From TrEMBL:
Protein name (database record): dTDP-4-dehydrorhamnose reductase
Molecular function as annotated in GO: dTDP-4-dehydrorhamnose reductase activity
Keyword NADP: yes
Task of the protein: Catalyzes the reduction of dTDP-6-deoxy-L-lyxo-4-hexulose to yield dTDP-L-rhamnose.
Keywords: NADP, Oxidoreductase
Reaction catalysis annotation: dTDP-beta-L-rhamnose + NADP(+) = dTDP-4-dehydro-beta-L-rhamnose + NADPH + H(+)
EC number in record: 1.1.1.133
Coiled-coil parts of chain: none
Oxidoreductase is among the record's keywords: yes
Family matches, as Pfam families: RmlD_sub_bind
NCBIfam families: rmlD (TIGR01214)
Superkingdom: Bacteria
Pathway stated in the Swiss-Prot or TrEMBL entry: Carbohydrate biosynthesis; dTDP-L-rhamnose biosynthesis
């Protein structure tokens, strides 16, 4: 039996966790900023003590990548300082902390999948503050599992899949970047992986950083083509270069994550991104 705190519970991953079942013996407290302000160390410690929390799953994050370039203080408050609050409270109250991080901690210049041991070198405010959050966890001394993921989407909130599906039904053609490589991640699959990991009785032995995305590699253009096809829309998808689609925050040219460690450690079977996309879009 466990008392589990889920932060950022109204986001994509948090919502997918709500839609799935932890053990019937567990009490799960789903919170977002209205229920718990994780930027307040006092509020975090009080909540954990009051509800006798022994497991924390942190899905909260400042994820507006371009906006973060002009709002570093707020991004750091959520991605670094709030994470430090959770980690310090986890140590104080003897909790396990599972935290979600990102491929943006890397610089995107690799030509082979990034492993958990690959050198980090974030190129954006978002990536830098997320890495600082990881470092705050390790510095705290709490028992932790950090899962880096990439290209997250679901049937909820704002994401690439929902945007492309909408545009495909509104326009005759759309332009999508074809020189950035990565792997989409269905938040539902990540949620199921988290639940399985949390059920592991030997979890304290497996402390560390892990990578999780769906299997396979594609560009945003490939991803968009598949979305349009599944949506049954009569819309042409045009490949363009990153230079033709300027944005404020630099995007990684290559952000494929190696998942061998998480698959071997927790005996996870991860499906191809195309199969996961079909499952997600069937719920639209």
């Amino acid at each position: 039996m466990a008392n589990i705190l889920v932060t950022g519970a109204n986001g994509q991953l948090g919502t997918e966790l709500r839609n799935r079942s932890f053990s019937l013996l567990d009490d799960v407290f789903y919170t977002d900023v209205e229920e718990l302000d994780i930027t307040s160390a006092k509020a975090v410690s009080s909540f954990i003590e009051t509800h006798e929390i022994d497991t924390i799953i942190n899905c909260a994050a400042y994820t507006a990548v371009d906006q973060a370039e002009d709002d570093e203080e707020r991004a750091a408050k959520i991605n670094r300082d709030a994470v430090a609050n959770l980690a310090n409270a986890a140590l104080q109250h003897d909790c396990i902390l599972l935290h979600i991080s990102t491929d943006y901690v890397f610089d995107g210049t690799a030509d082979q999948p990034y492993t958990e041991k690959s050198a980090t070198n974030p190129q954006t405010v978002y990536g830098r503050t997320k890495l600082e959050g990881e470092e705050a966890i390790k510095k705290s001394g709490c028992m932790y599992i950090i899962i880096r993921t990439a290209w997250l989407y679901s049937a909820y909130g704002h994401n690439f899949v929902k945007t492309i599906a909408r545009l495909a039904n509104e326009r005759d053609e759309i332009n999508v970047v074809n020189d950035q490589w990565g792997t989409p991640t269905y938040a539902g699959d990540l949620a199921e992986a988290i639940i399985k990991i949390m059920e592991n009785e030997d979890l304290p032995e497996w402390e560390g950083i892990y990578h999780f995305t769906n299997e396979g590699v594609c560009t945003w253009y490939d991803f968009a083509k598949e979305i349009v096809a599944l949506a049954g829309a009569d819309c042409k998808v045009n490949p363009v270069t990153t230079a033709e689609y300027p944005v404020k925050a630099k995007r990684p040219a290559y952000s494929v994550l190696d998942k061998k460690k998480i698959k071997d450690t927790f005996e996870l079977e991860i499906r191809d991104w195309r199969d996961a996309l079909k499952t997600c879009m069937a719920t639209f």
